[in-house]
Amino acid sequence: MRTPPVPRPRRAIGPTPASALTLPGARPGTRSLALPIALAVGMAGVLVAVGPTAVARSAEGPAAAVGHSPGGHSPGGHRGDLGRETISPDDGWAAWSGPTFPEGVERQARPTTGGAAATRSEVYEVDTWHELRDALAGREGGSQNDARYNDTPRIVYVTGAIDAFTASDGTPLTCEDFASQVTVEGTGEPFSMDDYIAHYDPAGPWGRADPSGPLEQARDAAARLQAAQTQQHVGSNVTIVGVGDDAQISGANLRVRDAHNVILRNLRFSDGYDCFPQWDPGDGDAGNWNSAYDNVSLWTSTSVWVDHSTFDDGAHPADSLPVVYGRPFEVHDGLLDITHGSDLVTVSYNEFLSHDKTMLIGSSDSRTQDRGQHRVTLHHNYWEDIGQRAPRVRYGDVHAYNNYYRQTGTGSFQYYWGSGRESSLVVENNAVRLARGSDPANVVGAYGGTMLSESGTTLNGRRADLVAAYNATASTPLADEARWAPSDAYRYRLLPTAAVPWVVMARAGTGELRSVLPR
Fold first, then answer.
1. Any transmembrane segments, and where (predicted)?
2. What is the Cα 377 distance to its own chain's centre?
3. ∠ at Cα 349 (459, 320), nearest 5°?
4. Strand locations in 32-122, DSSP E?
5. CA–CA separation, 222 vs 330, rounded Å?
6. In whole angstroms, what separates CA 18 from the centre of its chain?
7. How far apart are CA 371 and CA 3, in angstroms?
8. Average pLDDT of 29-49?
9. Residues 6+ apart with CB under 8 A from 449
10. Do residues 187 and 218 lie in contact, with contact meaning Cβ atoms separated by under 8 Å?
11. Per-residue pLDDT tens for 99-151?
């Protein structure tokens, strides 16, 4: 079971004082690669323009010669103060203005500004889980509903590593701390996942029936205790940013639910760990362990910008999980899932590392109310050694451009781009590097979808048509087309695909932006 590291000393929550010191700039990226001058000059002459060129203004200076600026728009803000930055004009769907209809209710969207309008009394510096929760609730000891429905503009600066498996007094928590609070009916004994596994073994007397009875009820009760501790809602008009290169939130499920106008930047979201995954013997041919938590979940939320962050499984990557009942004992769900009618989202310059089910856009085929929603832009992101869903899309108009997908080994790779029900995914100038032995036809997957528009892809450095590779063996081919054109919604520039690995490796992930506390 998970045992988190010793937490940092607590700091009293409260508004950041005006005299707060400016921290040093971010470290040089450990993976940064300098783009050769000759290559950069050559590529600048072959930029592919799609619509009018977007001008990205940033605290980091003017837009780069190729592609988007890696920063945001900082109207009068302090240089390096990410808390006051807003999304750059035309930076994907999150910069779009117009109507959106989460759950069928109209909401008028504006370009994402997060908490940039926060007053000084609503600016917080936090370095413990308890402080973060209070800041999002807007008051000490606030509830999850306080956090979920709070729409007062707020900026939360995260300094150092925050672990959700930490009690309010700083005591580290383990999975056993939740399980020991639950007594299994009829036994007088505390709940144990070991007992659960022994009881519901499909090779034993229980067989392949769905778990039920006292042990399943106890597992559910223990799971609710964990959720109360490690799941955190985020409301509207909020910016959460990391300061420096070591800001981290681990062990948590950060859930942006029923919210609008949210920015998450310069943070490592790590190991959204489920102590009590549920066994579902009817999930697939062999059954599966299903976890409840994503590192970050967007539910029924609009105008969200996720930028320059790193998502991973921390100390529990997919290849470290044990096998139980012949299936991986999965303690994670997604890294960043965008579901339940969430809309107008830009995901830029992030890293997604060593995870199986990485990004789901659209939660269910049966949610027909999501038609017209799930508009998402993914650009300049780095995906390494993931299994699937980069992304998998239902219903949405999704644009994935200038991303870098890389395998260092075959591992559990299944696919990258998943065309789900009534989706229209446009993928442009993405670089893919597969390990030896991986089939290029598997990069594309179809799960009820009918179309996927692809252009400008390179595979291991060479031009490739991966939709054609998929169609060559598919029983039902995908149309290489889309029902929409990204340039009709916003302006953007494409990097030549040959430059994508260099730029993404140099700029993506946490710690690559200069970030300071406000003066």
1. 33-55
2. 13
3. 70
4. 48-50, 98-100, 107-109
5. 17
6. 32
7. 42
8. 32
9. 393, 418, 419, 420, 421, 422, 423, 425, 478
10. no
11. 999 999 999 999 999 999 999 999 999 999 999 999 999 999 999 999 999 99
Question: In 24-40, which positions are buried (b, 16+ CB within 10 angstroms) versus exposed (e)?
Answer: eebeebeeeeebeeeeb
Q: Give me the residues paired with residue 434 across strands.
A: none
Please name which of 516, 426, 512 lies closest in space to residue 27, comparing C-alpha atoms: 512
CA 114 to the chain's CA centroid: 17
Q: Are the C-beta atoms of 88 and 72 separated by less than 8 Å? A: yes
Is the predicted pLDDT of residue 54 greater than 80, yes or no? no
Give the span between the Cα atoms of 26 and 24, in whole angstroms: 7
Residues 335 and 358: their CA atoms lie apart, in Å, by 5
Range from 80-84, 130-134, 193-197, 365-369 carrying the lowest mean pLDDT: 80-84
Condensed to tens digits (0 to 9), the pLDDT of residues 441-494 reads 999 999 999 999 999 999 999 999 999 999 999 999 999 999 999 999 999 999
10 is catalytic: no
CA-to-CA dists, residue 514 to 16, 49, 55, 265, 507, angstroms: 19, 28, 20, 12, 11
Tokens linked to 415: 């696919």
Query: In degrees, to the nearest 5, what angle opens at C-alpha 373 toward C-alphas 370 and 377?
Result: 140
What is the bridge-based pairing of β-strands 288-290 and 238-250?
unpaired
What angle is formed at CA 144 by the lines to CA 143 and CA 145, rounded to 5 degrees? 90
**Which among 508, 503, 489 is positioned nearest to 64, based on CA atoms?**
503
* Spatial separation of the C-alpha atoms in residues 90 and 70, rounded to whole Å: 13
pTM for the structure as a whole: 0.87
- Residue 123 tokens, joined: 């600016």
Which residue in the block uniquely carries the two structure tokens 């997908």? 405
Identity of residue 26: A
Q: Which helix H or strand E contains 38, and what residues bound it?
A: helix 37-44
Of 2, 133, 257, 389, catalytic? 389
Q: How far apart are CA 296 and CA 283, in angstroms?
A: 24
- Asked if omega into 391 is within 30° of 0 (cis), the reply is yes
Per-residue pLDDT, 64: 34
Contacts 24+ apart (CB under 8 A), 81-84: 81/515, 81/516, 81/517, 81/518, 82/239, 82/241, 82/265, 82/266, 82/513, 82/515, 83/115, 83/116, 83/118, 83/123, 83/155, 83/157, 83/239, 83/241, 83/518, 84/116, 84/155, 84/518
CA-to-CA distance for 369 and 103, rounded, in angstroms? Answer: 6
